[in-house]
Amino acid sequence: METGMVFGIIFAIIMIALLLVFGMDQIVNIFCVSNTAQTNKAVKDLENAVEDVFHLAEGSAMPFKIAIPRNAELCLINYSNPSPMNNWNPDPDMYNIIRNRIQANQYNVWINYGCGTHEPGYRISYLRVSENFCVGLGEELYIENKGHYVSIEKPM
Questions:
Q1: What's 122's DSSP letter?
Q2: pTM here?
Q3: 150 with 54: CB under 8 angstroms?
Q4: What is the DSSP letter of 77?
């Protein structure tokens, strides 16, 4: 091998290593943006389903299947009592901040995108949650019109 070719290969290896070291954050961010978009779409779909059920007759119900990325989760929260229960286990160090945000804004959905980030919360009109719980990919929910509001629960 010629000396110039050896230096060219070494230079290419160094450049690839630098690209991987400094570019990894951007690669991870691309996947996180994808998770965020898919999860936000699932929340909008849930919001539309709740609104559809609300406009049906009292007692009407429908199942709803969650379509979010594998490592993300939606937590449905009773904003008047956002205490940890079932599988809703917010970070204990952040719990007081999370609880105050949920109660102040009457959020009934808390989103964990699964890539180290979470949404500060989301409020779906007409939705009341009796027990706090979280759902992940492919799980099914049961949405029912209760007259002045819509309830949501996880089938047993």
A1: B
A2: 0.78
A3: yes
A4: -
